[in-house]
Inverse folding.
């Protein structure tokens, strides 16, 4: 049968039964989407306002030719549904929705447009930006052209859903459930990390299989991270305006489907193979002890505003799926800066997002989510609120509430900056950590008080709401902005490659070029730039909370000053595996820092510091020192010109326990940050006769310090703009014949303080 309209026409006389070579049954309203079984496929799609819904089927061999058009005669609870017996996997499909065309009232039903199923599990094809993809005559000069219906058929130019068999052998795989406070996140791009790897076969580069390749796994394990945070892997759309410029959407923040893995990242095929390849990747990463966190974009879709294309939800039920201007529904509320905002106030849109999250956990085995522009999802009717339906629903869900939940706690709407305002269960990208760490090491006259909060898990943001340090996802750089190397190579953004006349991207970066804009052969400037990178990496990994390293910062990746490389799907954004000697040294330094953090629980505590004496400890769990070795005074804290700070972390005074109830203890560490542009003498605390400090980290050099002792109560010369980490040692002379300490480590520090006070 090739007459695509014959079945729908015949159904007007007989709704169900056999129509030549295909049979149609009523089906069921749940589950939504295309659900395959050996008996056939059930199709179900929500639309509250449509008056009719047609299912369109396309053969694998001719995906742009509509083979069957079937009227879905049943509507139950606003869900249209039918069942096609004996239909095999691999068929492509979409819907056509009938109803009122009245853009001024928010209704955009146009049966000429093929619509992607919001619940499809796989997508085939690439959008051809033909005018037919738009619901209105795009070539018209009329500024109100979006009010006129376009009657061209979009089916030949649009992507289609794919019917798949979800069966998969997970071989006993389960989520790893790495405790959040022990997590080290590596924010990365599936294609970017693997595209240039010399040990990955060319056909696997840039794919899920490439990420699961032994060479990639070995690199991530050697680095020491515990979780990869994948930039968007929901199937996304290549923007027409970028294609016209010869560019591509690299980041992927332009979702078309909330269930389907992005097909371009699959090496194995597009007829459902991309789903299997994604599952293979997750299973392989789990076997290596690496968690998988997805960066998810539920706040908007690729359909844009009233001038945007019609791809799916806009044509299925515009008012249900999108936030419209209340008194002028031809326009969209734009809290995202992309043209539209998903309508999380509507119960079916909320269900779509919740079903998607549950699917990625239960069927795809991911370990958590980072929510792009999460404030847009948490908005009630007007404001961002802790009591929003979205947050409440997640907290009550027995599956989603148990995975890692990370918010990007802002959007572009009024009141959208909500750092510190999300409730328990949530961690947040701590934008204040980024800003304070950058400002401190840049040498801005802000003093050390803010930096002290960031070093200790940002208790000023999270403690009062009942959260713990792991609520703070600490980062200095991320995909959006300068790389760490560029942060100290450029004062200004250099985004000309984006072809927007350098207007795009953030202007306020707290960056510093160290004296020369861009690349230079000056050895002293290059040494300083490397030192600044080491400072930030050390600060990040010795701070309480959860560190997030941006892909490539561990070796000094550059984007040549581009701080908005969203459209640079090329070596500007990709990971470069050909390193210089300095880059190898920076990588080794980062790996060493991660190891120190992992092996010493005092650097990743579950609870905030109390400052109180605990158990048998004679000093508190933390102590702050000024360069003279004295405890910090109020005058020190309030001095905006103070740029040097010492922090003693008392591992013997930790009030924490392991999973078996055994108290956790660690060594005592001294971390000193010197953001001055010149050297500073810092008196090491302790009792000279007994106390020795072992230097573990010295960012003034790329070398790992050699074993050696430093005497307490004597000045130590800090290099300019440098960070130092010491571990307290106990000399053999401080033990009696029975091997017991004459003076405990904490008593050494306490006695020094007593001498100071006297």
């Amino acid at each position: 049968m090739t007459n695509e309209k014959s079945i729908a026409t015949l159904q007007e006389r007989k709704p169900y039964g056999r129509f030549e070579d295909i049979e149609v049954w009523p089906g069921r309203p749940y589950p939504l989407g295309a659900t395959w079984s050996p008996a056939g496929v059930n199709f179900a799609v929500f639309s509250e306002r449509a008056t009719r819904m047609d299912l369109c089927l396309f053969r694998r061999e001719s995906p742009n030719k509509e083979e069957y058009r079937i009227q879905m005669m049943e509507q139950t609870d606003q869900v249209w549904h039918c069942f096609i017996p004996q239909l095999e996997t691999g068929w492509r499909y979409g819907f056509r929705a009938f109803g009122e065309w009245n853009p001024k009232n928010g209704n955009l039903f146009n049966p000429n447009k093929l619509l992607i199923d919001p619940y499809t599990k796989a997508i085939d094809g690439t959008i051809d930006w033909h005018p037919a993809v738009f619901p209105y005559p795009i070539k018209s000069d009329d500024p109100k052209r979006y009010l006129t219906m376009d009657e061209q058929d979009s089916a030949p130019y649009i992507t289609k859903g794919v019917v798949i068999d979800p069966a998969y052998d997970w071989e006993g795989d389960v989520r790893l459930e790495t405790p959040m406070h022990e997590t080290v996140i590596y924010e990365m791009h599936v294609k970017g990390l693997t595209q240039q790897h010399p040990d990955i076969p060319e056909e696997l580069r840039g794919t899920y299989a490439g990420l699961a390749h032994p060479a990639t796994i070995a690199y991530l394990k050697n680095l020491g991270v515990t979780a990869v945070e994948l930039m968007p892997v929901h199937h996304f759309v290549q923007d027409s305006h970028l294609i016209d410029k010869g560019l591509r959407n690299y980041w992927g923040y332009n979702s078309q489907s909330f269930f389907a893995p992005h097909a371009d990242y699959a090496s194995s095929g597009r007829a459902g193979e991309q789903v299997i390849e994604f599952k293979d990747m997750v299973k392989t990463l789990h076997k290596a002890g690496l968690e998988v966190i997805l960066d998810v974009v539920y706040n908007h879709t690729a359909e844009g505003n009233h001038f945007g294309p019609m791809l799916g939800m806009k044509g299925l039920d515009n008012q249900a799926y999108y936030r419209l201007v209340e008194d002028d529904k031809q326009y969209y509320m734009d809290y995202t800066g992309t043209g539209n905002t998903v309508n999380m106030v509507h119960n079916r849109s909320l269900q779509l997002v919740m079903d998607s999250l549950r699917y990625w956990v239960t069927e795809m085995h991911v370990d958590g989510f980072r929510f792009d522009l999460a404030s847009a999802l948490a908005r009630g009717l007007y404001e961002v609120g802790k009591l929003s339906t979205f947050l409440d629903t997640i907290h009550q869900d027995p599956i989603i509430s148990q995975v890692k939940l990370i918010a990007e706690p802002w959007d572009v709407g009024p009141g959208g900056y909500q750092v510190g305002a999300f409730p328990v269960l949530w961690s947040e990208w701590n934008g204040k950590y980024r800003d304070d760490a950058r400002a401190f090491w840049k040498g801005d006259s802000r003093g050390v008080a803010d930096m002290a909060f960031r070093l200790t898990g940002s208790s000023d943001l999270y403690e009062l709401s009942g959260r713990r340090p792991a609520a703070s996802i600490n980062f200095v750089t991320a995909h959006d902005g300068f790389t760490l190397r560029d942060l100290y190579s450029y004062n200004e953004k250099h985004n000309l490659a984006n072809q927007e006349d350098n207007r795009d991207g953030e202007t306020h970066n707290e960056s510093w070029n160290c004296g020369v804009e861009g690349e230079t052969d000056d050895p002293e400037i290059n040494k300083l730039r490397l030192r600044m990178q080491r400072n930030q990496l050390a600060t990040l990994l010795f701070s309480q909370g959860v560190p997030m390293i941006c892909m490539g910062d561990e070796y000094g990746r550059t984007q040549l000053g581009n701080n908005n490389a969203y459209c640079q799907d090329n070596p500007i954004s990709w990971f470069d595996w050909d390193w210089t000697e300095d880059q190898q040294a920076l990588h080794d330094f980062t790996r060493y820092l991660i190891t120190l953090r992992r092996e010493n629980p005092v650097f990743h505590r579950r609870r905030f510091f109390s400052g109180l004496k605990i158990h048998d400890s004679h000093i508190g769990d933390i102590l702050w020192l000024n360069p003279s070795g004295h405890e910090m005074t109020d005058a020190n804290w309030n001095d905006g010109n103070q740029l040097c700070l010492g922090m003693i972390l008392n591992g013997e005074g930790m009030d924490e326990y392991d999973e078996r109830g055994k108290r956790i203890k660690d060594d005592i560490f001294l971390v000193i940050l010197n953001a001055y542009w010149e050297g500073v003498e810092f008196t090491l605390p302790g009792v000279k006769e007994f106390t020795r400090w072992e230097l573990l980290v010295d960012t003034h050099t790329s070398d790992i310090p050699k074993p050696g002792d430093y005497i307490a109560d004597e000045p130590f010369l800090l290099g300019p703009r440098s960070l130092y980490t010491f571990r307290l040692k106990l000399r053999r002379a401080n033990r009696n014949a029975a091997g017991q300490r004459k003076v405990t480590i904490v008593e050494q520090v306490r006695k020094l303080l007593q001498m100071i006070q006297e």
About this structure: The CA atoms of residues 167 and 276 lie 9 Å apart. The longest helix spans residues 523-541. The domain at 7-163 is CATH 2.60.40.10 (Immunoglobulin-like). The radius of gyration is 29 Å.
